[in-house]
């Protein structure tokens, strides 16, 4: 059993969202798409076109890695749902991590970043992969020196931040500013809720009823981004001897053992494979996992239990998720020209 009730744990981990929303920039992004609130922007990192442009270049630039090949986009590729299409993330020299690459889509709405929530903000998150030895494997000192050896970057950092070239703070803020533009809304589900009764097929509408009812999906996939920003043990990988402890390694709370952040369902059709360990190749496999109640373990979330789902119901549920959350305005960003 979890040592804290799920609702209490969910409240604890949504507090940062409330705090962030107090410090909003005077220049927020443009009007958000249908179904989503305005993007929270920290007061010390206002969104500007120049900063976003710089952040996008850094995001797509392999020179931020030790071998000049691995960029943020390598594991968070727009063509693959801002994930990488593989079970695990792959870094320098082909090194494999132990977790899947979470999507960047709508991470702007998240209160804590990474599967285990170890970064409080997008700014904190941005510098982590650069320094990780199995991801990009560069020290901050090394990446700053490398960027300052590129005249185009040195000029842009001075223009955007008023600094004499790149700094760790500037790198983090620029990448985070760009990631706050990776937004997906205005999906068929949003249009249906806004009154367009033809926005969802009959199968998707049946799936929607299951999603918010019998299938119990909305217990965790809640709110406009279909994530409660909390951490749950959903019984994934818990049959392994050395299973991933997840959030517990960060929070040091036994009730968080095997718990991972609830991912958004926006553009879920594009961002597979699924779960923190990429163990589910398809959404059908995801539904099967939840229907059987996950892998039993002492920390299993109380929201996870056996549910009888007929084959036709599974098809409708998958139809709702793939059709309902796939936007015609998908942020299909292309790699920009990089500074020289």
Here the CATH topology of the largest domain equals Cytochrome Bc1 Complex, Chain D, domain 2
Mean pLDDT: 92
Instruction: Name the CATH architecture of the largest domain.
Output: Orthogonal Bundle
Order of helices and strands: HHHHHHHHHEHEHH
CATH homolog superfamily of the largest domain: Cytochrome c-like domain
How would a textbook summarize the main sheet?
A: 2 strands, antiparallel
Tell me, briefly, the overall form.
Answer: globular
> Segments where pLDDT lies below 50 for 5+ residues?
1-28
Question: What does the radius of gyration come to?
Answer: 20 Å
Please tell me the total number of domains: 2
**β content, as a range?**
under 5%
Number of strands: 2
Structural class: mainly alpha
List keywords for this structure.
single chain; 340 residues; mainly alpha; Cytochrome Bc1 Complex, Chain D, domain 2; 2 domains; two-stranded antiparallel sheet; 35% helix; disordered N terminus
Describe the structure.
The model is unreliable at 1-28 (pLDDT under 50). With 340 residues, the protein is an all-alpha fold. It is globular. The protein has 2 domains: 10-179, Orthogonal Bundle (Cytochrome Bc1 Complex, Chain D, domain 2), CATH 1.10.760.10; 185-324, Orthogonal Bundle (Cytochrome Bc1 Complex, Chain D, domain 2). It has helices spanning 6-22, 49-60, 72-75, 122-131, 140-148, 151-161, 168-179, 188-193, 202-212, 248-251, 283-291, 311-324; strands spanning 231-232, 260-261. It is built from 12 helices and 2 strands; from the N terminus they run αααααααααβαβαα.
